[in-house]
């Protein structure tokens, strides 16, 4: 074979090998390319699955918020717990209720207020109906343990009156302090009839001096809560004590411990009625939260205060003042926040002036409290409050100032700083005169409340609150969620 032919053959071999190598490289590149495409496809598939899963979860959450399917189980549990609570309450009520013969010699625990005394307990048991005895011994305002011989019993409109003879009595030691404080107001305001009556009612809860005309005016203008010791008064006591202790630079924890002690003594002094007990427990839990550096929980405090109230006096659940007290707090804690949130953008956010914003806020809050209490007013009093909530915008701040001054007068006299009395009494008369004038003018405004001749059933009350519950906790959150 010639060398030339041999070179050709070698060249072809080299070409073939190069082609094979090239084909092999191109195959590997193609394989890598296909693998990359496959991996990208799989990655997109996984991302798509994740996105679909997320959209599914979002849809389910959205669906649940709209329809409330997920909450049905929780609602069912709440209903079961409620029914169990009702059964326990019925058994407990039966256990603590007096069932014997009411006539004869009995031990009565009585709270005297004027010409009559309310019977709180009989032989350490509770009565089904509210009952009272005449204050034949002219006992001063306070609580007494009375040995009473019941001769005759009369009942009218579920209210019982015991007639008989007082055999003996034992006075509560706290009455000494009550008398001391009452004497302070006797010395300073005895000649000022309405101011004298208001000071005793607003500071110590003694309403015997409050005339029917004065009560009617306060009720009509929607300011009756200022002459009944309530959460407002307890809040003023707490704030006042804390501010005074801040002035002497008392340490954080001792300051609140001292405030709790004073609050407890004050509430024991005026008597733990259902409304006062509710306000005291909520106030005490707020103070304890600060002492222990815990987060304040008004909802938990409200629930605990209700349970304690019912355990200590199961018949308090039927007390009108307790129902109104709890309904007002429920309106503040549960009903008002979602309503305010709903109107935040359309109304509140557009008001730049802070004073005007706070005024509108107070007006909305007063309306919500009044609206939430409407069924109770219709059921018990056959009255429908319409525009009385508007007077709270001015009446509550002025009335609160009067109460603050009265508390301060009580304090300076306890501390024997009596040289301040003349100036404090002068200021009190001016502010109370404005307050009294405002109430008098407000009582002349028509349609603040209207009389309703129709009687309403308990079914109406339940229906109203069920509808209110649906609006506040279902419909309003639904619209807020849709906006988001």
From TrEMBL:
Signal peptide location: none
Residue intervals passing through the bilayer: 78-98, 222-245, 257-281, 324-339, 360-381, 387-412, 419-441, 456-481
Annotated Pfam families: Competence
Domain ComEC/Rec2-related protein span(s) in chain numbering: 203-474
One GO location term (cellular component): plasma membrane
The keyword Cell membrane belongs to this UniProt entry's keyword annotation: yes
InterPro entries: ComEC_N, Competence_DNA_uptake
Membrane topology: Multi-pass membrane protein
Keywords noted in UniProt: Cell membrane, Coiled coil, Membrane, Transmembrane, Transmembrane helix
Coiled-coil features, chain-numbered ranges: 31-58
Protein name as it appears in the record: ComEC/Rec2 family competence protein
Naturally occurring in which organism (per UniProt): Leptotrichia rugosa
């Amino acid at each position: 074979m010639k060398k030339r032919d041999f070179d050709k053959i070698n060249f072809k071999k080299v070409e073939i090998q190069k082609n094979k190598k090239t084909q092999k490289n191109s195959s590997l590149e193609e394989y890598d390319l296909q693998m990359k495409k496959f991996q990208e496809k799989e990655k997109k598939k996984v991302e798509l699955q994740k996105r679909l899963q997320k959209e599914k979860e979002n849809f389910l959450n959205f669906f649940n918020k709209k329809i409330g399917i997920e909450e049905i189980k929780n609602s069912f549990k709440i209903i079961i717990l409620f029914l169990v609570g009702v059964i326990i309450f019925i058994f407990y009520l039966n256990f603590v209720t007096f069932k014997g013969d009411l006539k004869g010699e009995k031990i009565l625990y009585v709270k005297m207020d004027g010409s009559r005394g309310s019977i709180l307990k009989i032989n350490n048991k509770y009565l089904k109906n509210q009952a009272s005895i005449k204050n034949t011994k002219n006992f001063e305002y306070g609580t007494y343990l009375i040995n009473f011989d019941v001769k005759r019993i009369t009942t009218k409109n579920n209210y019982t009156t015991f007639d008989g003879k007082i055999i003996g009595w034992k006075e509560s030691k706290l009455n000494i302090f009550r008398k001391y404080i009452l004497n302070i107001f006797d010395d300073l305001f005895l000649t000022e009839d309405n101011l004298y009556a208001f000071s005793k009612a607003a500071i110590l809860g003694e309403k015997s001096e409050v005339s029917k005309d004065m009560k009617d005016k306060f009720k009509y203008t929607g300011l009756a809560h200022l002459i009944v010791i309530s959460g407002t008064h307890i809040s003023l006591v707490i704030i006042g004590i804390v501010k005074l202790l801040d002035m002497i630079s008392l340490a954080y924890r001792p300051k609140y411990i001292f405030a709790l002690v004073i609050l407890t003594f004050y509430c024991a002094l005026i008597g733990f009625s259902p409304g006062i007990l509710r306000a005291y427990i909520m106030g005490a839990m707020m103070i304890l939260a600060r002492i222990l550096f815990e987060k304040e929980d008004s909802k938990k405090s409200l629930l605990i205060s209700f349970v304690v109230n019912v355990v200590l006096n199961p018949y308090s659940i039927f007390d009108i003042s307790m129902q109104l007290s709890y309904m007002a707090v429920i309106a503040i804690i549960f009903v008002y926040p979602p309503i305010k949130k709903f109107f935040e953008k359309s109304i509140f956010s557009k008001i730049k002036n802070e004073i005007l914003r706070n005024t509108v806020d107070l007006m909305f809050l007063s309306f919500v409290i009044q609206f939430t209490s409407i069924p109770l007013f219709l059921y018990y009093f056959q009255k429908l409050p319409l525009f009385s909530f508007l007077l709270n915008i001015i009446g509550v701040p002025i009335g609160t100032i009067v109460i603050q001054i009265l508390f301060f007068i009580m304090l300076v006299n306890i501390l024997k700083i009596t040289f301040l009395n003349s100036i404090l009494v002068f200021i009190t008369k001016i502010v109370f005169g404005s307050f009294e004038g405002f109430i008098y003018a407000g009582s002349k405004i028509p349609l603040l409340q209207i009389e309703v001749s129709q009687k309403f059933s308990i079914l109406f009350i339940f229906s109203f609150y069920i509808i209110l519950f649906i609006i506040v906790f279902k419909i309003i959150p639904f619209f807020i969620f849709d906006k988001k």
